[in-house]
């Protein structure tokens, strides 16, 4: 199942990101801001627990987050979404999954994993700006499930229908959050109209 997050600010910033004339600085900043805006919807149904505190005026029965939050960027492009979400939830912890896609087979290969200790008890948010074939996302979800995670969400800026269907088929229990659902994948496995190579545009490597 997926949820398309529609908001004028997200649409505007995503338009700037799509533009081939947008340079590294502005691309990175807009990605950071879109991720932060998406975080409100991604975390809308986080569980709360009752707490009793004292304000400067009186005792107060209220609520706070019931579970820790772990953000899992898929390297390297996923790093571009970390700051925007961390600004909203500064207490979260960050895991890392390193995957690269074989340019011929389009299959993902793992080269790095690092997790906080409490992942089984946490709400896990996997982030990657692009959801193309779905291979990397499926692999990342498989990996965090092997660590014991059960409350898992996937957040992508732009997705192709093929990737969404693949993730839904492999992991029907994971909600996918999108800023845009694009038209299709081309013969090279790129999303159309897409953003181009998001990692290269974030880090200025091409």
């Amino acid at each position: 199942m997926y949820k398309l997050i529609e908001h004028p600010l997200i649409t505007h910033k995503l338009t700037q990101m799509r533009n081939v004339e947008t340079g590294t600085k502005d691309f990175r900043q807009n990605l950071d801001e879109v991720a932060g805006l998406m975080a409100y919807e991604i975390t809308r149904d986080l569980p709360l627990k009752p707490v009793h505190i004292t304000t400067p005026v009186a005792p107060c029965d209220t609520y706070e987050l019931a579970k820790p939050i772990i953000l899992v960027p898929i390297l390297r492009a996923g790093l571009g979404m970390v700051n925007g979400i961390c600004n909203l939830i500064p207490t979260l912890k960050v895991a890392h999954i390193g995957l690269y896609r074989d340019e011929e087979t389009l299959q993902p290969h793992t080269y790095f994993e690092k997790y906080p200790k409490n992942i089984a008890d946490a709400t896990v948010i996997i982030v990657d700006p692009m959801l193309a074939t779905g291979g990397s996302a499926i692999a990342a979800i498989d990996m965090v499930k092997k660590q014991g995670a059960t409350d898992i969400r996937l957040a992508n800026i732009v997705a192709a229908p093929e990737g969404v269907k693949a993730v839904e088929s492999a992991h029907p229990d994971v909600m996918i959050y999108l800023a845009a659902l694009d038209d299709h994948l081309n013969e090279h496995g790129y999303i159309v109209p897409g953003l181009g190579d998001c990692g290269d545009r974030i880090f200025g490597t091409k």
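The mean pLDDT is 94. The longest strand covers residues 151-159.
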